[in-house]
Design a protein that fits this description.
12% of the residues lie in helices and 43% in strands. The chain has one helix and five strands.
Length: 60
Amino acid sequence: MDYKVGDIVTLKKGHPCGSHDWKILRVGADFRLECMGCGHQIMIARKLVEKNTKKLKPTE
C-alpha cells in the first residue's frame, strides 16, 4: 500500500477509546498516527502498520 500524510487508516486492533481509525501525521521507518476518536498520538513501526491495516482511505 502507498501511505501518505493525511490518509486515514483503519487498523485491526482498536484504541481503548473505541476507535479503529487513525490519521497519518508522519511517514517513514516509523509512522506518527493520531486517533480519530480521542486525538491521542502514537509512534509505531512501519512494519506493524502494514501488517495490521484493514482499510486505507486516501486523502482527496
